[in-house]
Amino acid sequence: MSDEIKNNEDSFEQDDVNALTEGDIIEMIGDDGETVSFIFVDALEYEGDVYLALAEPEEDDAVFFLKIEQDEEGNDVYNAPDEELEDILFKRFTEMRGSEE
Description:
Layout: E1 4-7, H1 14-19, E2 25-30, E3 35-46, E4 49-55, E5 63-70, E6 76-79, H2 83-100
């Protein structure tokens, strides 16, 4: 999977993130032009940036994160964080999920 994925929609606003519920399917277009589907797990904010916690449909318990950004044309672009930040996000995610139970 590429580190950069564009949203299939024209724009993916913060309100759209708030409207998502766990289990929703999100379709995005990879940089190869293929549509890729992910399962929305949750969203979290870290240092002012919003990250989507997603899972691949075939992987029940593997979660990864994509940061929502916009390119120079105003299209949403989703970038994977580096390994260090991903570790921080995963820790916050598991703490957040643990406090919900």
